[in-house]
Each structure stands twice: as structure tokens, then as C-alpha cells.
Specification:
Length: about 290
């Protein structure tokens, strides 16, 4: 962990004697932050994707790496409209991506339920980059509040040609804002999707919350294995044996997604305690694979 406001470069953190390093970790089932991680297996790796979000304040994201994904989302009963441009997704000039959920400008958009109540941002690498195994990692400072639903996740690159959930979904990190000290890691596939997704949660110790600092959310992903960690603390491993006889659909390329939803079946809508705007700050996103 590092102090608020300080940037931690993944390149500097991984370099040791000119060789990039990554952790191979393992564990099983939902545990909290007090769990003891397994010893790390250190392997040389190659950085195949990195964005440290350097650029002037108000700049858009790098279009060679990300595309915005505008629109609403009736499937999850989300209440926001994901906008185009830089109103809700922009760089802050201090090396961060900022995704803002707000009530501002919502009346200019139509959602499935009528005039929209909120706007936010969603971006992905569907047309620019797909990962297949390795460590997928981001350093993020999360928003909070009833009805706020930030996520760092992945979809099978064969989507939408292969429909969800057969395409597969890997949720590296999701948080429902009324539980600001707990995040979730989940997979969705054929026979285990939606409320039946398979996953585990991780809670910070001592009443800490994820809105107070940047934390590193990662998966270590190999054929027939996905391992989740927060700040290097492993809290779950899943293999084909854990999907209850259903198909394991995670041995193929996936693309990455970052978004902040407002409302939805899982978190429920905002209430009088929810303040806006809410912002998710992303320090970096990286993918490394074994050489």
C-alpha cells in the first residue's frame, strides 16, 4: 500500500535486475483480508498491455487502447446512461483515469425507463486488445455509497457472436457501494450466471474502505485456473472442478472493461444517503504474460 496521492508505477514495481516479475498465487473459497496467502511462485513475464493514463487534465483516454461504450443497461436494471466524450471519462492530468457517476446532464439522455436520472462512463478494449492468460491488474481508488457499483471485469472476445453467459465473464473486482470495505471476484458462464455466478469476497481489515486509497486488484490466469488477489493477498482460486459440472469457458482470449454503474439489481438504487458525483480513479491497468 502507498500513501494517498502517490503514484506507484507497475513498471518500476515489477523491474528487478532488468527482469519483470509477477506473482503466481493460490487459494480457495471466500475468505477475508486476514487469510494467509500461499507462497508466491515468481516467473519472468512480458508486459503486453499497459496504460498509466498520462496526459493533460480533461484529455480523453488513449483510443489505441480503449473505446467508450455508450448507452444504458436494462439487463441489470442500471439507472445511468454511459456517455460519449469526456464528460464522464477523462484523464486528470496527474496520471489517473477518472470515471465519474453524476446526476449532471442526465436529462439529455433517454434510458429504458424514460428520461435518465444519472450519467456515468464505461470503456473497454474489445476492438484494441484481448488478453489470454497472465496477470491482469489495475490500481484503483473506488467510489462509495448506496447504489454505486464500480467494476473492473472481462468478457470473452467471442462476445457478442457467442452470447452471454456462454462467452464467459471474469469479474476481477466488483463493489456494491453500501459495502465500501468489501470487493467481489466472480465468474459467469453457462449454468452459473447472474445471481448464480461463482465467486468470493475480500474485506479490508479494521473497518478500512476502498474509497480511502488506491488498491491493486488482480487475477493470475492460466489454463484451467484463475486466482484473485487484492494488494497481493489471495482470496480465491477457481478451476474447472468448481463450476459444478458445467463448461469452463475461460481458456480463450478476453477483453477488459472498466465502468461505474448506478443502481441495478445487486446494489439497488441510490437513496438520500448517496452523494454525487462519485468517482473511480484508475492509476494503471496492465497485463503481463509468461515469456
Amino acid at each position: 500500500m502507498f500513501m494517498p496521492g502517490a503514484r506507484r508505477s507497475p513498471t518500476r514495481r515489477w523491474l528487478a535486475g532488468g527482469t519483470v516479475l509477477a506473482l503466481g498465487l493460490t487459494s480457495l473459497l471466500a475468505v477475508n483480508a486476514q487469510a494467509e496467502p500461499e507462497p508466491a511462485d515468481v516467473e519472468p513475464t512480458e508486459v503486453v498491455f499497459i496504460d498509466e493514463f498520462d496526459g493533460a487534465a480533461g484529455s480523453p483516454v488513449d483510443s489505441s487502447k480503449w473505446q467508450l461504450d455508450p448507452g444504458d443497461n436494462a439487463n441489470n436494471a442500471e439507472l445511468q446512461y454511459y456517455t460519449e466524450g469526456t464528460d464522464n471519462v477523462q484523464l486528470d492530468g496527474e496520471g489517473h483515469l477518472v470515471i465519474t457517476a453524476t446526476e449532471e446532464g442526465a436529462e439529455n439522455h433517454q434510458c429504458y425507463y424514460g428520461t435518465c436520472e444519472y450519467t456515468s462512463g464505461r470503456l473497454n478494449t474489445a476492438n484494441t486488445f484481448s488478453a489470454e492468460y497472465g496477470r491482469v491488474e489495475a490500481s484503483i481508488k473506488l467510489p462509495q455509497g448506496q447504489g454505486i457499483w464500480p467494476a473492473f471485469w472481462m468478457l470473452g472476445s467471442d462476445f457478442p457472436g457467442v452470447p452471454w453467459p456462454d462467452s464467459g465473464e471474469i469479474d476481477i473486482m466488483e463493489m456494491v457501494g453500501h459495502e465500501p470495505g468489501t470487493v467481489h471476484g466472480t465468474v459467469h458462464g453457462p449454468g452459473y450466471s447472474g445471481g448464480g455466478g461463482i465467486g468470493a469476497s475480500y474485506s479490508l481489515p479494521g473497518g478500512e474502505i476502498f474509497a480511502d486509497d488506491f488498491h491493486t486488484f488482480a487475477i493470475d490466469w492460466a489454463p484451467d485456473s484463475i486466482v484473485w488477489s487484492v494488494d497481493g493477498e489471495v482470496f480465491q482460486e477457481l478451476t474447472p472442478e468448481d463450476v459444478n459440472g458445467n463448461a469452463w469457458v475461460f481458456n480463450k482470449p478476453f477483453f477488459m472493461i472498466l465502468n461505474v454503474a448506478v443502481g441495478g439489481h445487486w446494489p439497488g438504487p441510490p437513496d438520500d444517503s448517496t452523494t454525487f458525483p462519485q468517482q473511480m480513479l484508475v492509476d494503471y491497468v496492465s497485463v503481463t504474460t509468461s515469456e
